[in-house]
Structure formats: structure tokens, C-alpha cells
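Design a sequence for this backbone.
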């Protein structure tokens, strides 16, 4: 990943931690300017069932075999130089 992408990813993880939240997908969510132009995604307060995942598992998300590994907040944050 390039420096910009690593920085954006790290900023996303920081937002999830700071606001104790997860990303939730629901196709009925309206677009949020500056966040999701097509709609469907929003940040919601983290629940204990969310564990350390970045996205909430619900009826609209289909967990994959490697989902827990791919969607977990990493123990070591991506390193980059600004």
C-alpha cells in the first residue's frame, strides 16, 4: 500500500477506537455526505458481540472463512511516514 492508503487506514482505525464504534452495513442507510456517497454504511457504537472486528456482522454481511482475520483491528497499526 502507498503512504496515503496506509495513512487513511490508520486514521480509520483511530476513529473506530476514539468513538468506540464499528462500521455497519445496511442497504437502507441513506448516503452521508463526506462519509459514504452511495449509502449503506454508518458508524455505530461497538457492542460486546462485535469483538475486535471493524465491521458489525448482521443479516446483510456474509462472513467469509477468513473474515475474523481480515476484518479484525490489527494488534500492530500500519506504520508510515507523514
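Sequence:
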Amino acid at each position: 500500500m502507498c503512504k496515503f492508503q496506509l495513512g487513511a487506514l490508520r486514521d480509520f482505525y483511530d476513529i473506530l477506537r476514539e468513538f468506540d464504534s464499528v462500521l455497519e452495513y445496511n442497504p437502507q442507510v441513506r448516503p452521508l455526505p463526506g462519509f459514504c456517497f452511495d449509502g449503506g454504511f454508518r458508524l455505530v457504537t461497538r457492542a460486546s458481540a462485535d469483538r475486535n472486528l471493524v465491521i458489525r456482522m448482521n443479516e446483510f454481511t456474509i462472513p467469509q472463512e477468513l473474515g475474523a482475520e481480515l476484518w479484525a483491528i490489527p494488534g500492530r497499526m500500519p506504520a508510515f511516514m507523514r
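The helical segments are 3-18, 67-70.
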